[in-house]
């Protein structure tokens, strides 16, 4: 929770009181590996903060599952479009490991904002992070090779290769696991 405190006090310039008030609203949730935080068709009524473990977000169609985000320790996890619109989500968020997280409900978060508009700084911070991650990924698909996309994911999610199976990383990159193996091998050879 120290990293969350730092976001409040150092990054956002909020007081320790804001942080303490926010903490009072949080609920603890644990997930076992392969359990879902949310499934397609549900309305997301929470924003979570991952304390330990790793989750993946994916969409599904007739061709299979396609990873579109990962949530590692100290990150905010939510089907965020659904959270904002209060409409059903088209994604699933699944635990890749046992996960411990805290969450705040949509209603609680908006109650905090109504009481003190300084919490809008936190809302903006969360929105900005989601927006930037999504834009980077979209742009990388339009501009970059698979090898460059791999470098991007390594920067975006440090230590991801130790925490997420290769086939999930390949899915996020839009390539087959065999292609990811070749890219890693070529990168290693060229060093």
From TrEMBL:
UniProt domain Cyclic nucleotide-binding: residue ranges: 13-113
Pfam families: cNMP_binding
Domain of life: Bacteria
Annotated signal peptide: none
Protein name in UniProt: Crp/Fnr family transcriptional regulator
Organism listed in the record: Flavobacterium panici
Species classification: Bacteria, Pseudomonadati, Bacteroidota, Flavobacteriia, Flavobacteriales
């Amino acid at each position: 929770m120290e990293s969350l405190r730092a976001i409040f006090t150092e990054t956002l310039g909020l007081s320790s009181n804001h942080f303490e008030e926010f903490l009072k609203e949080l609920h603890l949730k644990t997930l076992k590996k392969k359990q879902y935080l949310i499934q397609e068709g549900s309305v997301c009524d929470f924003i979570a903060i991952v304390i330990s473990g790793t989750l993946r977000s994916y969409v599904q169609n007739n061709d299979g599952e396609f990873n579109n985000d990962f949530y590692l320790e100290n990150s905010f996890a939510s089907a965020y479009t659904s959270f904002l619109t209060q409409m059903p989500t088209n994604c699933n968020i699944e635990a890749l490991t046992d996960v411990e997280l805290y969450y705040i409900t949509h209603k609680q978060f908006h109650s905090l904002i109504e009481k003190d508009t300084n919490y809008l700084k936190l809302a903006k911070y969360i929105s900005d992070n989601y927006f930037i991650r999504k834009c980077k990924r979209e742009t990388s698909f339009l501009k970059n090779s698979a090898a460059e996309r791999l470098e991007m994911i390594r920067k975006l999610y440090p230590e991801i290769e130790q925490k997420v199976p290769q086939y999930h990383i390949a899915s996020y990159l839009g390539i087959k696991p065999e292609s990811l193996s070749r890219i890693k091998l070529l990168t290693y050879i060229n060093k």
